[in-house]
Amino acid sequence: QVQLVESGGGLVQAGGSLRLSCAASGRTFSSYTMGWFRQAPGKEREFVAAISWSTPSTSYADSVKGRFTISRDNAKNTVYLHMSSLKPEDTAVYYCAADSLLPGLEAHMAHRPPDYWGQGTQVTVSS
After folding, report:
1. β partners of residue 85
2. Most buried among 50, 82, 87, 95, by the most CB within 10 A?
3. What's the rounded Cα separation, in Å, for the pair 16 and 27?
């Protein structure tokens, strides 16, 4: 079992930045591909970004490329999502996820349910 707890969400103006954190506990964090998803009101949950356990292999949704950066600190069992140039359409609940994908396959996280989910953190971008 892996437990994931997100933090860092909040209200920010368009053009601003936020950094989300996801603290993991339980089984060996460093052997999991980690990712972020989001779900806006009335929409399906969508993939945002993923990072393999052997960085710097990452994958991003087209909608966030160049604005969001995913990183991880295996020593702290934490994965981050740095979001910049935020837009109102980035408003959503952001979920951390863990998957047993092998390095190099992190893009597959966009196409299959991960093994574990966090409880989510709200990000609201005002115009």
Report:
1. none
2. 50
3. 35
SS3 category, 84: coil
Backbone angles phi, psi at 106, to 5 degrees: -60, -25
For 54-76, write each residue's pLDDT tens digit: 767 999 999 999 999 999 998 89
What band does 102 get if pLDDT is binned at 50, 70 and 90?
A: confident
pLDDT at 31 (0 to 100)? 83
Number of C-beta neighbours around residue 31 at 10 A: 12
What residues have CB less than 8 Å from 70, skipping those under 6 apart? 34, 35, 36, 49, 50, 51, 58, 60, 79, 80, 81, 82
Q: How far apart are CA 71 and CA 14, in angstroms?
A: 23
State residue 55's pLDDT score: 61
